[in-house]
Structures are given as structure tokens and as C-alpha cells.
Amino acid sequence: MSIYNIAVIAGDGIGPEVLQEGIKVLNTIAELDGSLHFEYTYFPWGCEYYSQHGVMMDEDGVERLKDFDAIFLGAVGFPGVPDHISLWDLLLKIRKSFDQYINIRPIKLIKGAPCPLKDVNREDIDMLFIRENSEGEYAGAGDWLFKGQANEVVLQTGVFSRKGTERVIRYAFETARKAGKSLTSISKGNALNYSMVFWDQVFEEVAKEFPDVQTASYLVDAAAMLMISDPKRFEVVVTSNLFGDILTDLGAALAGGIGLAAGANINPERNFPSMFEPIHGSAPDIAGKGLANPLAAIWSASQLLDFIGHEKYGQLVLDAIEGLLLEGEVLTPDMKGAASTAEVGDRVSKIVSSLMPSVMVE
């Protein structure tokens, strides 16, 4: 039996609700395949923990997490706790401590999902964004001088090391080559005359090692326009921390909404655990009401399955999500339905069960 130890950080707002449905789907697969088992350890960290203890996570939190096979995160953020504290003292702390330098966000318009674009084929929206996840504009470097004075100055420094830039670009090329797809780099070299010129230079250098991979390069403003006007030109995409953060939210809007947006924070060398999370935020206004859409968390569970080597089950979960959307009967209010969070998770699990026999035969 393959046993996987999963650290669960349900977090804030709707985090516990949606994460429970992702776990429900993982457990369904494990029950149907007796050779697979998940063991969960729950950590109470988040904004509520901060309000009680003054910290987002325990001082030895990183040490306690390091031996898990993966981390499953719900959501972080709640009114009363400044966003920079909830982000930097939990989510980014984990990403940086475990060198999760690859952020993977699929932007795929699956059957049954709504799309705001007119006259677009479902197949035209199928992008895989690979975002640099450890430095860049989110490195936390800078200074705040002369606070409160007339000559107050704030410096926010983007950090682009050769190691950090080259490894994410190389990972993207390897991914594109394996998938037989093109690779697009998105930067802003005309205005950011140090960081993005360097990024473009490294992209061109690494591209020489992958002559079989078709490449393109766009400025971020042009890329945002083209994602809407001609999305099919984007297959595998590599970009910086900030640009990737913004463009993948745009992509989520194209591919069914933020309720379908999943994300993986990967340490490719597997020296540390990787972390899987929906990217929709904590939505405190609907927390505890059973209204939250759990499909992004369930999609994140699919990414977790892919990463631990069970790609056929990862695809099975996506097929089940697609089946749910095509039925159109068990959907949460954000998708014009009346079902609860738990009812959606139950239905996905039932579809997984119905599809499982054919997958196990393969």
C-alpha cells in the first residue's frame, strides 16, 4: 500500500468548507483503490489563530511541515488581519521555506464551464501558466524611508537572480517539450530595463537548448489583450511572480470563474513538500453558509494526485468535474445553481466512483 501523509491547513473563511470536499474526493479514490491511502494531519493556522496567539503559524511550523508528502491549503485572509501579515507570515513563508519556486495554474475551459467570451471554441482556452514563485516582485526586498514626513519614500525592489530566473524558464521548456506544445514568455522589457531585459535574455539563452520547442514572447499588456482576443495562441506560458499572479486571475475569468481556479506550489526536486490550493481566497462574506464553490479545491486535489504519481486519477477527477458541469444539476450559486458546498463534493465523488472501474482497467 502507498501511504501519503498530507498536512492540511484549512485556513480562513470558506477554506475549511472547500478543502473538506477536496479531501472527500481523495478519500473516495483511496477507498476504491485499496493500494492507495491518505493520512491527514490538521494544523489550525490562519487568521483566527493569529487573533488568539499573535502569529499566523507556530514558530516551529516549517519544521513540523517539512516531512509531509504534500500540503493541502484552503484559504488565507480575514477582516481584521492585514493582508500583508496573512500572506507573508503563512502562505509566502511556506512557499519560500520549502523552495516552492514553481507555481502551476491550469487555465482550461472544460465542457460545461461558462465563458464570457463570444464565438470562442472550448479548445481555444487551454493554457498552462508556469509562474516564478520565489522571488521577482514578491521577494520582499525594499525599504520605507522618512515615514510620515513630506519626503517619504518607499522602495519595492524586484529580485531576479540568474538561478531563480533560469530554473523556472528551464522547467517551462521541459514541460512544453514533454507536452509537445509551444512556450510563450511574458515580460515587460521595454519599460523594466533591468529585470525584464534580463528575463528576456535568459529566455533566449535557454531556448537554444530546446530547438524543438516553438516559442513566442509578449509584453504583459499585449498578452492580457491577446488572452481575450486570441486565447488559442497560448499553450504553455512562463512569466514572473507578479505578472503570473495577475494574468492567471484573468485566465480564471475566461475558464469558468475563480471558483474553478486551482494552483500548485511545486518544489520539483522534492527536497521539501509541495503545496496545493484553490486560488479564490477566503470569501469571508459567505463563510459557513454552505455557498462556496469547492471545485477549485477539488481541482487542486487533482494536481496533488498528479504530483504524487497518480496522473490517471488526477485526470479522473477532472473528468468528474466536467461531468458535473455537463449535468448542470448540482452547482453552487456562483454557477447559477442552488446546491450546497457539500452536495457538490458528494456529486463529484459519486461521478468519480462511476468512472473508477474503467480507469482501473487501463
UniProtKB/TrEMBL annotation:
Q: InterPro entries annotated for this entry?
A: ICDH/IPMDH, IsoCit/isopropylmalate_DH_CS, IsoPropMal-DH-like_dom, TTC_DH
Q: Which domain of life is it from?
A: Bacteria
- Provide the top EC class: oxidoreductase
Coiled coil segments of this chain: none
Organism annotation = Cytobacillus solani
Q: Which SUPFAM superfamilies does its entry note? A: Isocitrate/Isopropylmalate dehydrogenase-like
The EC number on file is 1.1.1.83
| Reaction(s) the record says it catalyses | (R)-malate + NAD(+) = pyruvate + CO2 + NADH
What is a single molecular function from GO for this protein? Answer: NAD binding
Q: Which UniProt keywords apply?
A: Manganese, Metal-binding, NAD, Oxidoreductase
Q: What is this protein called?
A: D-malate dehydrogenase (decarboxylating)
Its required cofactor(s), as named, are: Mg(2+); Mn(2+)
Q: Which family does it belong to?
A: Belongs to the isocitrate and isopropylmalate dehydrogenases family.
Isopropylmalate dehydrogenase-like domain residues: 5-348
